From TrEMBL:
The lineage of its organism: Bacteria, Pseudomonadati, Bacteroidota, Flavobacteriia, Flavobacteriales. Residues 3-161 form the N-acetyltransferase domain. Transmembrane segments: none annotated. It holds the Pfam family Acetyltransf_1. GO terms for molecular function: acyltransferase activity, transferring groups other than amino-acyl groups. InterPro entries: Acyl_CoA_acyltransferase, GNAT_dom. It comes from the Bacteria. Coiled coil: none annotated. PROSITE patterns: GNAT (PS51186). This is GCN5-related N-acetyltransferase.
Amino acid sequence: MNFQIQNSNSYDTDEIFRLYKIATDFQKTRFTHHWPEFDRHLIETEILENRQWKIVSEGKIVCVWATTFDDPQIWEERNEEPAVYIHRIATNPDFRGQNLVSKIVEWAKIYAQENQKQFIRMDTVGDNSGLINYYTKCGFEFLGLLKLKNTEGLPAHYDNATVSLFQIDLNSK
């Protein structure tokens, strides 16, 4: 199957929200923390700033995620280090089991280097051993848990949350 990674565009917004809803509904069946309904303006801004991404295959959106180069409320003092942060990976259920996070990691390594970043970072809410194992198999180092101190302005699922932190250090490879 041929996969292409591209920036999302405004025509993708409804599909992005459909994938978020599917992911959130799945999270509700398994976990106490789940994604809230995201603000449409947030997604539209990410699209305009070329920070919302998609994997496409045969004209279908396979997977979406967002990136940023700044995440101080979650990464605190480590935010000063040059990193690309990956958020909200949501997969089209028709494409589950395709090892998409590994494809995102391979893309992110190039993207980080092109943008002079040393680290690829991700977080998840809670202590989910299944996700921890999966992300480490995809190349991330699990850095441990962090109780968030200041969640003002972050999506609701971060309120009073403990997060699992992950990173890939491109200089250690």
